[in-house]
Amino acid sequence: MHRYDEATDELARAVFGYALERVRMDPPPLDGTRSDRELAAAAGPTVTPHGIGGLAALRIFTDVLAPATLSQDHPRNLSFVPTAPTEAAILFDLVVGASSIFGGSWLEGAGAVHAENEALRWLADLAGFPAGSGGTFVSGGSAGNLSALVTARHTARRLRAGPAPQRWTIATSGGVHSSVRAAARVMDVDIVAVAVDERGRMTGGALRARLDAMSPDERDGLFAIVATGGTTNVGVVDDLAGVAEVCGEWGLWLHVDAAYGGAALAAPSARWRFAGIERADSLVIDPHKWLFAPYDCAALVYRDPELALATHTQHAEYLDVLHESRAPGNPSHDEGSGAGHTTRGDPSEPPNPSDLAFHLTRRVRGLPFWFSLATHGTDAYRDAVETTLATARAAVRLIDRRSYLELVLEPELSVVVLRRLGWAPPDYHAWSRSLLAQGIAFCAPTTLHGETVVRLCIVNPRTTPDDLAVIFDSMA
Ligand SMILES: *Cc1c(COP(=O)(O)O)cnc(C)c1O
User: Fold this and answer.
1) How confident is the model over 36-55, as pLDDT tens digits?
2) What is the mean pLDDT of residues 227-235?
3) How far is CA 312 from CA 286, 307, 360, in A?
């Protein structure tokens, strides 16, 4: 198996041929979904004692499996948060796959991590984070939110003078992403719910009112506020400046989850909505959502990465060489009291990415993003995000022109929510299924205040107003 021979060469040509053809498709077919039973029947047994051969496996992928996966980069795939990687980013993902780079440590991955950090720095600068800030790329917003909140609690625990609180608690709004609730379950912390305004935003005033109303026990264990920089359901940005003000007064960690919306920091027309983000302690932005990187790639940035190192660094007999190798003869960098201090000696060197989140082995998943940024420049990113924002504004005009449609909420970013007058929930679902079955578009309905509505999430610069018109006309 570990040999490059003639058969491998033939397979290489076939695999690269497939990849090249897929990258060249504009647009790719939307494709669809199939039941497991149908797939088993169509594909037949594939994992066998003697192997079926690479060309045969590739044929099954091409003919059976790939058509049963949706193209997330199709310009009329507007469900959930789709993706739209650049050609440069996709091509470089092939290079990353070919290169066997361990991205967890500086010792093993210095060159790649250096480049990832350049891309991360661009995001940190867009957010207005200070020079010493930094972080790493993790698998997704979920992993980023969990890692940031674990760091926040670890920091609170270390700074605490008295006994441990009965319960650790975070405060956030109903607009928060489900992954934050999931992180709270994993961490066994409680969530205090902050009311939202009529647009669905958490404001500093509402946060202050909720904190003032907390019981002494809740207040005792409160360690972080999670604000959302672009809610996934409707794309509204919390009042980050107001929330940051309250966090400052209360001495609370501010985590901003901008997994979807953070890309809009690159767009001058939307940047102002994020005022205050520069005061966050930690920040998550997913380049695999709206910054044109392939899966899976989420940026996790800390104002003070030392706090993350003190939280996440793993120690083991065979790992400690990674810490010592960075600072021979100078093994102690104690953050203060308590367990879990790191042995990082020279803070002027970038830290090991493994030590900044809940992971150890790490693909250098920021490299395709870096390569595309380096290829095209940040101006092209600004323009591409602005294009999607303009398409969202065009959607509003197209809706206004159709008497059977009604805009539900003026879009702040690139999520457009609308209703079809006269439709009941089953109508929305039947319409959505039919569009997908015909290979026209994928537009999954959502609910807002209990009402079923259409939600279009535009992250693809190739999505045009004409694409939206096709979708809107199909609702007539
Ligand atoms: C998508 C999303 C997440 C989860 O990110 P994954 O990359 O899917 O793990 C978290 N928060 C927000 C606001 C999101 O939109």
Assistant:
1) 999 999 999 999 999 999 99
2) 97
3) 21, 9, 10
- Assess whether pLDDT exceeds 70 at residue 222: yes
414: helix, strand or coil: coil
What are 193-198's contacts with CB under 8 Å, separation 24+? none
Using most ligand atoms within 8 A of CB, pick from 83, 142, 180 the residue to mutate for ligand 1: 142
- Pocket flag, ligand 1, residue 228 (CB < 6 Å): yes
Decide if 217 contacts 163 (C-beta within 8 A): no
Query: Cα–Cα distance between 6 and 99 in angstroms, integer?
Result: 21
- Distance, CA of 314 to CA of 90 (rounded, Å): 32
Q: Work out the number of other CB atoms within 10 angstroms of the CB of residue 321.
A: 11
3-state secondary structure at position 453: strand
Query: CA quadruple 234, 240, 246, 248: dihedral positive or negative?
Result: positive
Q: Which of 202, 255, 260, 297 is the pocket-test mutation for ligand 1 (most atoms within 8 Å of CB)? A: 260
- Asked whether the beta carbons of 334 and 341 are under 8 A apart, the reply is yes
The DSSP-derived string for 335-374 is -SSSS--B----TTSPPPGGGGTT-SS---TTHHHHHHHH
Closest CA to ligand 1's atom 10: 141
Per-residue tokens: 360: 């150890």
> Is any atom of ligand 1 closer than 6 Å to the C-beta of 81?
yes
The amino acid present at 296, given as its one-letter code, is: D
Centre of ligand 1 from the C-alpha of residue 142, in Å:
6
pTM for this prediction: 0.95
Q: How far is ligand 1, taken at its centre, from the CA of residue 169, in Å?
A: 21
